[in-house]
Amino acid sequence: MKLPDLTELALRNLRESLLRNSLTTVGISVGVASLVAMLSLGTGLQQLFTRRLAKSGLFDTVYVSSRRELRGMSREEQRTGPNPGESPVLDEAARLEIEKLPNVSEAYPDIRFVTELRYEDKPHLTMISALPPSAKSNDAFEGIQGSFFTSDAAPEVILQKSFAEELLGKTPALGMPEPNVSELAKPLLGKELTMRYAQRESAQPTPLRPDTNASEDVAGASYSVVSRQQQLKIVGVADLDPESMRGPTRAKVFLPLKLAESLHVMQPTDLREIARARTDQSVYSSISVRVKNPSQIQAVEDAIKKMGFTTFSILDASRSLQQVFKVLYAFLGIFGSLALAVASIGIVNTLVMAILERRREIGIMKAIGASDADVKKLFFAEAGAMGIFGGIVGVILGWAIGQVINFGTNIWLRSQSIPPEHFWAVPLWLVIFSIGFAFIVSLISGLYPAGRAARLDPVQALRYE
Amino acid sequence: MTIAPAVPSIAIRSENVCRHYRMGETLIRAVDGISLEIRSGEFVALLGTSGSGKSSMLNLVAGLDRPTSGSVIVQDRDLARLSREELAKYRLHVVGMVFQSFNLIPSMTLTENVELPMRFADVDRGKRQSLSREALQRVGLGSRIDHRPSELSGGEQQRAALARALINRPKLLLADEPTGNLDSHTGTEIMEMVRGFNRDLGMTVVMVTHERALAERYAQRMIFLADGKLIDDHPNTSVSPQPQVEAVR
Predict the structure, then answer these.
(1) Nearest by CB: A370 against B62, B88, B108
(2) d(Cα A371, Cα B50) in Å, to the nearest integer?
């Protein structure tokens, strides 16, 4: 029998016992809905994490440092690369060169230093770090009180919550509830801080004695260190820690990058590189390189390594995260499939009942020339049709359940003053997969009934009333 | 193509055919060593009381059942040696069957019922529809093609069943008590139609009946069975035999 004929006959047979077949189909729908619900939760959560992590800047950033730092090198790197003394200096020229690499969106120096900040005449010692304008999209600043820097060179400062607590003398004891950021920000926003720091100032090169054969690059290597101070206005207080990755060296006070560069704060590397620095150009201890797409991180890392620098990224961390999600998927899929497995028993039951009911009809069909294969295909087609219908309805149902849960959860999140999130996603592949899966499960369920119907003895079947 | 002189070929031949089956402890010999030959174009009645084995014999000829021993040869095919698939093809193309209880599929309209064998034979939809309509018109049901069997009288249902039996142009028409559920008037109507197919189309007809009068009126030959055995086989003198004309290539 041809496929269109088969489909037509199958649909007509399904219509004949509408209630029973509808109930079976509803069973499949519920099974598919639970599968879709589980897997779309998994997909949604993965997308949420990926989105969050992308925003955190962790997955698209390569940290570059010079081999001259003599740290952060694995044994392999020590053996394969040039020796630290001969490796290049991480200066402005190197930064520009890195920025020109394909797929690199920006490369900015990590300027960080420990210095003293005075607030209401009380000194506070802390780690200060500079932020590029792109950090504005970092999710750490999503719940910021106040605002981000008005410009990249403005004499402004953003405080991390814990430093704000310190300034106000409100640091809570361990185990005590932390004060709300907005309460902390209120008295601080718009106030001034005084930062004291050591500035490196280039001095006049010492005239060389004409009889020495010293190379030219030593000539400019001379500067003085001057103590300075700078007034800074508090514009924002951030709830989250944008540098949580850095552990103990993380900063609690942030300056705009251009401003920090213009201050020429004395860096520890300055002392070491004085012998090599050609001019008074800045030498950086490390540079953060942002990649356009996390998938290109490996290529960019390799390119930078070729230039003779040491690199670090948390690509491996993201890989293990993928692993975790695969396991999560498998678990959610198994739980979701359970309901479909139960539904498939419903299909077997319905079709076995149909064989009993249509025994005589099967006998007639065989008597007028239907082959075993024709009868088998007919029952398969009925099972398959129930599977496809159930699959389609199930996907719609699963999607609707997702929307309701998403909506409900967001109401709760809002009541907890957490911004709403979209953690439920039904991608096209899931729709196609679910309907296909329901179809295949239904066909498998149809195997036994179809075989049984095909084997029916026509003489016996015709005698059946 | 030439018209050859009458050489009646054998349509059905059975050789010592048996159909035994077990029912609990007892062995039922439904058909017990029947040998017979039926010529092409013959109209034969199989007579006997209930349980005589006439329907079992018909089922063997129809390819619905397989003999326990012996052979049934229809148009040079030994049915016992055919696979299930080949038997289905045989039923589809060689045999047309009508039953006492009509056996139309109740959920289908008359056209759909008549079309069904053509679906199994992979006939195109358009051709199927026109052929089934034509067949129903020929049996006088042209105005009822979209009715369901339950909306029809017994005679009409049997006529529709005849239309279905003949739709794939079979060589053999097998009828199992075709008038058993009909009053004598409609029964006669149906039998006249069957005789018409036998005479006009040269179709071989084997009819199972327990009504001797019916057999005497329509069949050219009467075969009597009892307890699965052939007990009598003689021509019916009151019905003139068909002139045997065969096309020879």
Answers:
(1) B88
(2) 30
Residue pLDDT, tens place only, A253-272:
888 888 888 888 877 666 66
Q: What is the pLDDT of residue B246?
A: 44
User: What tens digit of pLDDT does each residue of A200-242 get?
Assistant: 776 655 555 555 554 444 444 567 788 888 889 988 888 766 5
Contacts B116 to A, Cβ<8 Å = 365, 368
Contact with chain B for residue A371, Cβ under 8 A:
yes
Contact flag B116-A368 (C-beta cutoff 8 Å): yes
* ipTM of predicted complex: 0.90
pLDDT at B173: 94
* Confidence check: pLDDT of B2 > 60: no
What digits encode the pLDDT tens for the residues A96-151? Answer: 888 888 888 888 888 888 888 888 888 888 888 888 888 777 766 777 888 888 88
How is residue B243 annotated by DSSP? P
Q: What is the mean pLDDT of residues A69-89?
A: 60
**Structure-block tokens of residue A232:** 């800074």
Distance in angstroms (rounded) separating the CA atoms of residues A33 and A398: 4
Mutate to test the interface with B, among A357, A368, A374 (most CBs of B within 10 A): A368
The predicted model scores a pTM of: 0.68
Give the residue, A409 or A242, on which the prediction is more confident.
Answer: A409
**Cβ of A324 under 8 Å from any chain B Cβ?**
no
Closest CA to B55 of B99, B88, B17, B117: B99
CA dihedral A16→A21→A25→A28, nearest 10 degrees, is -150
- The label of the residue with tokens 């009380």 reads A122
